[in-house]
Amino acid sequence: MKKKGIAANLYTYNSLILHLGKAGKAAEAGQMYEELLMKGWKPNVFTYNALIRGYSVSGSTENAYAAYGRMIVGGCLPNSSTYMQLPNQL
């Protein structure tokens, strides 16, 4: 996209984060999250859910809960999907 001069928006980043996470590339999904912040986009519940899911699927429990913490601190309200994505710590 960058090579073609197409600017990414929040929906583009959300899609990238979701699909990188599904592919087991949680670190790359985290990099996309950081990039969207640097570009001035405000993450929404979909952004955080995709990020949390990616970390959870890859077994990175600490990062999943850290993303949840950033969500809360950033003023983004979780939804039922958020809680389903969080790893169970029983």
Number of helices: 5
Query: Which of globular, elongated, flat, extended, rod-shaped describes the shape?
Result: globular
Coarse structural class? mainly alpha
CATH architecture: Alpha Horseshoe
Largest sheet: none
Mean pLDDT: 92
- Strand portion, in percent? under 5%
Order of helices and strands: HHHHH
Oligomer: single chain
Would you state the CATH class? Answer: Mainly Alpha
The Cα radius of gyration reads 13 Å
Unreliable stretches (pLDDT < 50, length at least 5) are none
Q: State the helicity in percent bands.
A: 55-70%
Give a count of the beta strands, DSSP E runs of length 2 or more.
Answer: 0
Terminal CA distance reads 42 Å
CATH topology grouping: Serine Threonine Protein Phosphatase 5, Tetratricopeptide repeat
Q: Number of domains in the coordinates?
A: 1
Supply the CATH superfamily name.
Tetratricopeptide repeat domain
